Amino acid sequence: MTKEIITKEQQKAARYAKAMGHPIRMYVLDLLSKQSCCYSGDLTEDLPIVKSTLSQHLKELKDAGLIQGEIEAPRIKYCLNKKSWKEAQELFRNFLKIDIEEPIQNCLK
Amino acid sequence: MTKEIITKEQQKAARYAKAMGHPIRMYVLDLLSKQSCCYSGDLTEDLPIVKSTLSQHLKELKDAGLIQGEIEAPRIKYCLNKKSWKEAQELFRNFLKIDIEEPIQNCLK
DNA sequence: TACTTTGTTCGCAATTTCACGAACAACGAA
DNA sequence: TTCGTTGTTCGTGAAATTGCGAACAAAGTA
């Protein structure tokens, strides 16, 4: 499948999109894009799923490269994988033709 | 599922992301974002899938609201659904922007 | 009215996703 | 060492996804 008409960029973007393609995972990513880190224990309290299901979703995000976990005492701290996140930003920015108002421009004023 | 901790925006973004979450569909969307329209007959020639499979992927994109088809002679012309595309742009722009801090830090130096 | 072209729908099979509970592993605290 | 907390893994089942070929529908053309 996928000869070579489909570019590497398109494949990577599709991979990221797939990981984002579930409400729970979108919620987690959105949270992490605002909050720098979170703990899955806190997530299970808010979200209407049991911990094993959440664990699977977090694994899905990890496999896609979007987040990473760090052991911290009894818990695990999750945060965005900044490198992959940047790549996803670039891919989607190009794909969606989004012009981002650069904060740099504000500085130049 | 999905009490109300998960916002409408997150659900919509996840829905769009899901539709984008396949190489074939990402290819089609990327093409349409550059080309204004295309015909599925031309797509089957390039892509390594048979027409019935492509039809399903196009249906998936239609169901997500991202594209629309228009009957034109014997063929069907596909193009982006501009309204939904705009919405997706907005959702992903808000969702993906986190690199704001870094340029600011550079400015403050 | 046939015939051709184009794309959808149907039926099928293999695989993946999603969700749950139970069991397990890791590790600090009593 | 034993206990409690935290999160992963396993086993299971239901549903969705992906892909194919065959059959069908629509519509222009001979």
What does the average pLDDT of chain A come to? Answer: 88
Report the helical percentage of chain A.
Answer: 55-70%
Helix-strand topology string of chain A: HHEHHEEHH
* Overall number of structural domains of chain A: 1
What does the main sheet of chain A amount to? 3 strands, antiparallel
Which stretches of chain A of 5+ consecutive residues score pLDDT under 50? 103-109
Kindly report the oligomeric state of this protein: homodimer
Radius of gyration of chain A: 16 Å
User: For the largest interface in this structure, which chains are involved and how many residues does each contribute?
Assistant: A-B, 45 and 42 residues
Strand content of chain A: 5-15%
> What is the count of β-strands of chain A?
3
Structural class of chain A: alpha+beta
Outline type of chain A:
elongated
CATH class division of chain A: Mainly Alpha
- Walk across the major sheet of chain A and give the strand order: 1-3-2
End-to-end separation of chain A in angstroms reads 50 Å
In CATH terms, the superfamily of chain A is: Winged helix-like DNA-binding domain superfamily/Winged helix DNA-binding domain
Please give the CATH architecture of chain A. Answer: Orthogonal Bundle
Kindly identify the CATH topology of chain A. Arc Repressor Mutant, subunit A
